[in-house]
Automatic annotation (TrEMBL):
SUPFAM superfamilies: FMN-dependent nitroreductase-like (SSF55469). Residues 1-49 form the Nitroreductase domain. The lineage of its organism: Bacteria, Pseudomonadati, Pseudomonadota, Betaproteobacteria, Burkholderiales. One of its GO terms (molecular function) is oxidoreductase activity. This is Nitroreductase. It holds the Pfam family Nitroreductase.
Amino acid sequence: MFIQNIMLAAKARGLDTCTQEFLSRYHAVIRSELPLAPEELVVCSMALGFGEPHWAKRRPQMPKASIEEFASFHGF
């Protein structure tokens, strides 16, 4: 929710954001650049700037899994 609040505040100021979880796989590289304690990890990062609205229309769509493939609902 912390990141969501930053994203909402950025949008209110005319900026776009993109969260990026994939950098968590490179914790050894990140650790060499940031003063992190041994028990700390970077689990998410965020790009912040001015988006290009026309780019989203040109890029190919990623295939999406149906909700049944990755979630289950019990008692609903």
